[in-house]
Design goal:
Number of helices of chain A: 14
Strand content of chain A: under 5%
CATH class of one domain in chain B: Alpha Beta
Distance between the termini of chain A: 56 Å
Largest interface: A-B, 37 and 34 residues
CATH architecture of chain A: Orthogonal Bundle
Number of strands of chain A: 2
Helix content of chain B: 40-55%
Shape of chain B: globular
CATH superfamily of chain A: MetI-like
Largest sheet of chain A: 2 strands, antiparallel
Order of helices and strands of chain A: HHEEHHHHHHHHHHHH
Number of strands of chain B: 7
Distance between the termini of chain B: 55 Å
Oligomer: heterodimer
Structural class of chain A: mainly alpha
């Protein structure tokens, strides 16, 4: 066996190949081969479609015929479409309605679970997390039955006990948003609880004890000990929730059915409808590109805030 | 981690699997291509055709028989559910490979392909003109291009619309329950409106489950719908769709239209309990009714719609142009959909045939259903089928339908102004059509 040498000198006998496969290069080649299966699949199914999407945003195509270059016309068409702006509005409203109360409740639940007063902590942890592992489609169907339009639907029935007239959850502007937001809430509150719980458990107990000795009540303990020390975790959950809710798709799709009404349409649902129901792939790609830039903006804002808060420590 | 030999073996195995997965698509057509002698029609080589279907048309039961007709042709049927099937078909045709030799296309999905007719084989080139007379003209015309020179597919089954009604609700309202008497009572849509008001006044129940079926019934009786044969949007000039819309919204204002979502669990329960009086629906809805409402046997009956009939559903068998065996594919299609075989499909699966010649067959005229109060169901459907008119749909049909549906739902559920909703819907349709 040859010695391990990174050879750079040329061999005069004219057999460069032997030297090419030095040990270093063999290791490198092996490494590339190991990652190649994933990378090949990733580039075919992810990278290529992303670039193709940018290309498609400038074309007019109905999926079957030939493509026609139209420049920025697709963008103009969707920006003039009130439905597009409605879908952005809907996405933000549902995102806020779904995530803000959820993070708040998750925080409270985590705090409660963290305390020593509750027995069977594991049982609660598991049961709170369970909604997250259910199938989204099944959840949407069940919630569709709960939030049905007729007076005998479960939610309408409960409302009638409070003397509120039945709401048309399927078509009402706010009714629809409440129904979809509640699905998001139900699914993710457990996930965020577990994350907050993990964060809280890393806070040493001595801090709380010291505060109690100093006479701090519960609210003060939360405000001055838990919240500041939980800041990175809170930032992370806000970050993930934002990105996730900007891409809200399955819940509105199954809940609204094929109608895809404007009261509940979200950005991703809008572009899905453009592409696969209306067969207008050019404008759908334009919507996708716009969504891409919106998410970049939000990610940047989140990162700046996180950095600023991180530096201030 | 791994020894050198093991890691090389691993990488080779992965590449083998990748190659095997990639090549499975090509192998069938390659084999068939090799064995197909282009100058020999009756080649002794074996030809395999793939056929894509959805739902349960029961065509696999015909394969044995076809082996005797054409022994060197084998057919492989792949089945999927309605939405998946059409997604797969669209993708395969758009991608240019992977499409089957024969495909089923539902009537609602055939419009997608109108602008890309070169993706299909023109069945007129294969001799479809000869069998044209066997089929109902309106369903045949739906599978033709606008100028009538191109045929996408041969019709399989159809869904002529009739009026299903609850005999107990009609009785409660003091109305006749015998199908002929009901039909005599409700001869026009104005009669329907009068009867609707009576029913709601005397029984407190809405005349229909929702507004969609009323609109569909009137729309399907119109000679033209949203587009003319040059694919221009005529919704602002043509009176028929506006009439249908106005009639439907009038009934909503009369308070005779229910708000039960179609296909929801409440809809099924309402069928069972008799919470609404009539269901204006196609022939295949009878399976839905009997399935959803087992306890309502004997309380439903069937008669004709006022002023003619419409059609909802039905499919076609077409041949994508990617096929290498167009003639054999067409031979199978024309055999499978001949009147005799459609009669068999009706007896076995209940598929309502598109060939009027067999409507006089005793299996048809004498078929009764106890669930529907002993009515001769097939006879009624066949009479309805012969009343349907030809109307051109056009490539934007689904878009236009969807927007009008939204407008109707807004008027029904949210009490919005019908005229305003109409204008908004038309604007949305125009905007959407610009983009394709």
């Amino acid at each position: 066996m040859a010695d391990y040498q990174p050879v750079r000198t040329k061999v005069k006998s004219g057999k460069p190949k032997k030297r090419f496969m030095s040990e270093e290069r063999k290791d490198a080649l092996a490494a590339y081969l190991y990652i190649s299966p994933f990378f090949i699949i990733f580039s075919v199914f992810s990278i290529f479609p992303i670039f193709f999407s940018f290309y498609l945003g400038l074309q007019r195509w109905n999926g079957l015929g030939s493509m026609e270059y139209v420049g920025l016309r697709n963008f103009r068409l969707i920006y003039e479409d009130p439905m597009f702006w409605k879908s952005i509005y809907n996405t933000f409203v549902i995102a806020l309605m779904g995530t803000l109360p959820q993070l708040f409740v998750a925080f409270l639940l985590a705090f409660a679970l963290n305390s020593t007063l509750i027995k069977f902590k594991n049982f609660f942890r598991i049961s709170f997390f369970m909604p997250n592992v259910t199938s989204i489609v099944a959840v949407a169907i069940v919630f569709g039955t709960l939030f049905t339009n007729s007076e005998t639907g479960l939610v309408n029935l409960v409302l009638s006990y409070f003397n509120i007239s039945p709401i048309n959850w399927g078509t009402n502007e706010w009714g629809l948003k409440v129904a979809i937001a509640s699905m998001v809430f139900w699914r993710w509150v457990g996930y965020n609880t577990i994350i907050y719980l993990a964060g809280m458990q890393s806070i040493p107990n001595e801090l709380y004890e010291a505060a109690k000795i100093d006479g701090a009540n519960l609210r003060q303990q939360i405000t001055y000990i838990t919240l500041p020390l939980l800041k990175p975790v809170i930032i992370f959950t806000v970050f993930v929730s934002t990105i996730g809710s900007l891409q809200l798709f399955t819940e509105p799709l199954v809940f609204l059915g094929r109608t895809m009404r404007e009261e509940g349409i979200t950005m991703v649902l809008y572009l899905y409808r453009e592409a696969f129901v209306n067969n207008a792939f050019g404008t759908a790609s334009a919507a996708a590109i716009t969504l891409f830039f919106i998410i970049i903006v939000f990610t940047t804002i989140n990162l700046l805030i996180a950095n600023r808060l991180g530096n201030s420590k | 981690m791994f020894s050198k030999k093991a890691s090389i073996l691993y990488v080779v195995l992965v590449f083998m699997l990748v190659l095997a997965a990639c090549s499975s698509n090509g192998s069938n057509s390659e084999n068939a291509g090799e064995t197909d002698d282009s100058n020999d029609n009756q080649s002794a080589e074996n030809i395999e055709l793939t056929m894509w279907t959805f739902g349960s048309p029961g065509y696999d039961k015909f394969l044995e028989e076809y082996k005797e007709v054409n022994p060197n042709v084998t057919i492989r049927i792949q089945s999927a559910d309605l939405a998946d099937h059409h997604n797969n078909l669209f993708t395969a045709i758009s991608a240019g490979s992977g499409a089957p030799d024969i495909t089923m296309i539902e009537a609602g999905y055939i419009d997608q392909y109108r602008e890309a007719q070169e993706m299909f084989v023109n069945l007129y080139d294969l001799g479809a003109e000869e069998i044209k007379g066997d089929y109902l003209d309106w369903t045949w015309s739906n599978a033709e291009s606008a100028d009538g020179d191109f045929l996408f597919g041969v019709p399989t089954d159809i869904g002529p619309t009739v009026m299903y009604y609850r005999t107990d609700v009609f009785e409660e309202a003091g109305l006749p329950t015998d199908p002929d008497e009901v039909h005599a009572l409700i001869q026009t849509w104005d009669d329907f409106r009068k009867v609707a008001k009576e029913v709601t006044e005397k029984t407190g129940k809405p005349m229909t489950d929702n507004v969609n079926l009323i609109y569909y019934s009137l729309r399907d009786q119109s000679p033209e719908t949203y587009f003319d044969r040059d694919n221009n949007l005529i919704i602002n000039d043509s009176p028929y769709i506006k009439n249908a819309y106005d009639y439907a919204t009038q009934l909503i204002e009369d308070g005779v239209v229910g708000r039960i979502e179609m296909w929801s669990p409440e809809w099924g329960t309402a069928m069972n309990d008799g919470s609404f009086a009539t269901l204006l629906a196609p022939s295949w809805m009878q399976n839905v009714i009997t399935g959803n409402a087992p306890e309502a046997a004997g309380k439903w009956s069937i008669t004709h719609l006022p002023e003619g009939a419409g059609n909802w559903g039905g499919s076609y068998l077409g041949v994508p142009s990617q096929t290498k065996h167009a003639e054999e594919a067409y031979a199978f299609i024309s055999w499978l959909l001949s009147p005799e075989n459609q009669l068999k499909s009706f007896k076995q699966e209940g598929l309502f045939p598109s060939t009027p010649a067999i409507y006089d067959d005793p299996a048809f005229t004498e078929h009764t259903d106890e669930y529907f109060s002993g009515v001769k169901t097939a006879k009624i459907y066949s009479e309805a089928a012969q009343q349907v008119q030809i109307a051109y749909t056009g490539p934007g049909y689904a878009i236009a339908n969807s927007e009008i549906g939204t407008a109707l739902a807004n008027v029904n559920n949210e009490n919005r102004d019908p005229e305003k909703e109409w204008e908004e819907a038309v604007k949305r349709i125009e905007r959407q059509l610009e983009r394709r």
